Amino acid sequence: MSWLTDHVFAIREAATNNLKKLVEKFGRDWAQNTVLPKVIQLARDQNYLYRMTCLFAINVCDRKTNQSNSSLFVFRLWLNHVNKISPNE
Q1: Per the confidence metrics, is the pTM higher than 0.70?
Q2: Fewer CB within 10 A of the end CB, N or C, for the chain?
Q3: What is the enclosing helix (H) or strand (E) of 1?
Protein backbone atom coordinates (compact mmCIF):
# COMPACT_ATOMS: atom_id res chain seq x y z
CA MET A 1 0.00 0.00 0.00
CA SER A 2 2.95 2.35 0.48
CA TRP A 3 3.48 2.36 -3.29
CA LEU A 4 0.28 4.38 -3.58
CA THR A 5 2.10 7.30 -1.98
CA ASP A 6 5.31 7.13 -3.98
CA HIS A 7 6.55 10.39 -5.49
CA VAL A 8 6.75 8.90 -8.98
CA PHE A 9 3.47 8.65 -10.90
CA ALA A 10 4.50 5.44 -12.70
CA ILE A 11 4.95 3.72 -9.32
CA ARG A 12 1.55 4.90 -8.09
CA GLU A 13 -0.01 3.76 -11.36
CA ALA A 14 1.65 0.33 -11.07
CA ALA A 15 0.41 0.08 -7.48
CA THR A 16 -3.12 0.81 -8.66
CA ASN A 17 -2.83 -1.90 -11.31
CA ASN A 18 -1.51 -4.30 -8.66
CA LEU A 19 -4.55 -3.50 -6.54
CA LYS A 20 -6.73 -4.49 -9.47
CA LYS A 21 -5.02 -7.88 -9.63
CA LEU A 22 -5.28 -8.37 -5.88
CA VAL A 23 -8.99 -7.56 -5.93
CA GLU A 24 -9.46 -10.08 -8.74
CA LYS A 25 -7.64 -12.70 -6.67
CA PHE A 26 -9.08 -12.07 -3.20
CA GLY A 27 -12.51 -10.69 -4.05
CA ARG A 28 -14.91 -7.93 -3.17
CA ASP A 29 -15.15 -8.52 0.58
CA TRP A 30 -11.39 -8.48 0.98
CA ALA A 31 -11.18 -5.25 -1.01
CA GLN A 32 -13.89 -3.56 1.04
CA ASN A 33 -12.43 -4.64 4.36
CA THR A 34 -8.71 -4.33 3.65
CA VAL A 35 -8.01 -2.06 0.71
CA LEU A 36 -10.71 0.60 0.70
CA PRO A 37 -10.16 1.85 4.27
CA LYS A 38 -6.49 2.47 3.48
CA VAL A 39 -7.27 4.01 0.11
CA ILE A 40 -9.84 6.32 1.63
CA GLN A 41 -7.16 7.63 4.00
CA LEU A 42 -5.46 9.02 0.89
CA ALA A 43 -8.50 11.24 0.33
CA ARG A 44 -7.53 13.16 3.47
CA ASP A 45 -3.92 13.73 2.43
CA GLN A 46 -2.78 17.28 1.78
CA ASN A 47 -1.00 16.23 -1.39
CA TYR A 48 -3.43 16.40 -4.31
CA LEU A 49 -1.53 13.63 -6.14
CA TYR A 50 -2.38 11.20 -3.37
CA ARG A 51 -6.00 12.33 -3.41
CA MET A 52 -6.06 11.63 -7.16
CA THR A 53 -4.49 8.21 -6.55
CA CYS A 54 -7.32 7.51 -4.12
CA LEU A 55 -9.83 8.17 -6.88
CA PHE A 56 -7.93 6.00 -9.36
CA ALA A 57 -7.73 3.13 -6.87
CA ILE A 58 -11.42 3.34 -6.00
CA ASN A 59 -12.26 3.30 -9.70
CA VAL A 60 -10.12 0.21 -10.31
CA CYS A 61 -11.51 -1.63 -7.30
CA ASP A 62 -15.02 -0.73 -8.35
CA ARG A 63 -14.58 -2.19 -11.82
CA LYS A 64 -13.26 -5.45 -10.45
CA THR A 65 -15.95 -5.86 -7.81
CA ASN A 66 -18.78 -5.12 -10.25
CA GLN A 67 -20.03 -2.26 -8.11
CA SER A 68 -22.13 0.25 -9.96
CA ASN A 69 -22.14 2.96 -7.33
CA SER A 70 -18.54 4.19 -7.39
CA SER A 71 -19.51 7.55 -8.87
CA LEU A 72 -21.88 8.19 -5.98
CA PHE A 73 -19.31 6.93 -3.47
CA VAL A 74 -16.56 9.12 -4.89
CA PHE A 75 -18.88 12.12 -5.01
CA ARG A 76 -19.83 11.67 -1.35
CA LEU A 77 -16.18 11.21 -0.42
CA TRP A 78 -15.32 14.39 -2.27
CA LEU A 79 -18.16 16.34 -0.62
CA ASN A 80 -17.07 15.22 2.83
CA HIS A 81 -13.51 16.39 2.31
CA VAL A 82 -13.72 19.32 -0.08
CA ASN A 83 -13.91 21.93 2.65
CA LYS A 84 -11.31 20.22 4.83
CA ILE A 85 -8.59 20.00 2.19
CA SER A 86 -5.95 22.66 2.05
CA PRO A 87 -4.38 23.35 -1.34
CA ASN A 88 -0.78 22.44 -1.97
CA GLU A 89 1.56 25.28 -1.28
Answers
A1: no
A2: C
A3: none
